[in-house]
Amino acid sequence: MYKNTKENIESMAIATLLDIWGCLDWEKIDKRRAYGIWDEFSGKVKASAITTNSYEKFVEKLARKMDVRSLRYREIEEIREQSEEIKQSILNLIRTETLQLVLKVRLNNEARKEQRAAIKKEVDKKDESNKKVVFTNKGVEVNE
């Protein structure tokens, strides 16, 4: 069980939004819609939070508005098991600080993209260095 602290509530709110963001079906989002996707997401987060009084309904509504077919993340499931007080605190925070939370989700998403790119670059670099030494039936061949 999580404690009802500002930091925990904020991290659970961000985790909720990240989980839903991570399940967007990008094949259904055309280029024109993609340009305004963060504004659309922010607006739909706010609308979903204001028009419901339960965490579960909020998640369901937002997922439906964003055309998410299935949520496959454990953070939302873990939050659903929390006390009603904690879930209400998350929902209240989402209502009052929508833009700040969406911005944090966006920054988190950008950081993950950069991290993946750095890992890919490192893997490609290792693959390139591995190509310099090739093992053959006759021994080792060094390509320079």
**Count of individual domains:** 1
Shape: elongated
Distance between the termini: 57 Å
Strand content: 5-15%
Backbone structural class:
mainly alpha
Q: Residue-averaged pLDDT, rounded?
A: 87
pLDDT < 50 stretches: none
Strand order across the largest sheet: 1-2
Count up the helices: 7
Helix content: 55-70%
List SSEs in N-to-C order.
HHHHHHHEE
Query: Which value, in Å, is the CA radius of gyration?
Result: 21 Å
Largest sheet: 2 strands, antiparallel
Number of strands: 2
Question: Can you give keywords for this protein?
Answer:
single chain, 144 residues, mainly alpha, two-stranded antiparallel ribbon
Describe what you observe in this structure:
- With 144 residues, the chain is mostly helical.
- It is built from seven helices and two strands; from the N terminus they run H-H-H-H-H-H-H-E-E.
- Helix 1 packs across helix 7 (98-130), helix 3 (37-50) crosses helix 6 and helix 3 crosses helix 7 (98-130).
- The protein has helices at residues 6-22, 31-35, 37-50, 55-65, 74-80, 84-96, 98-130; strands spanning 133-136, 139-142.
- The mean pLDDT is 87.
- A hairpin with a 2-residue loop joins strand 1 and strand 2 (139-142).
- The protein is 69% helix and 6% strand.
- The longest helix is centred in the last third of the chain and has 33 residues, at 98-130.
- The relative contact order is 0.14.
- The chain has one domain (6-132).
- Strands 1-2 form a two-stranded antiparallel ribbon.
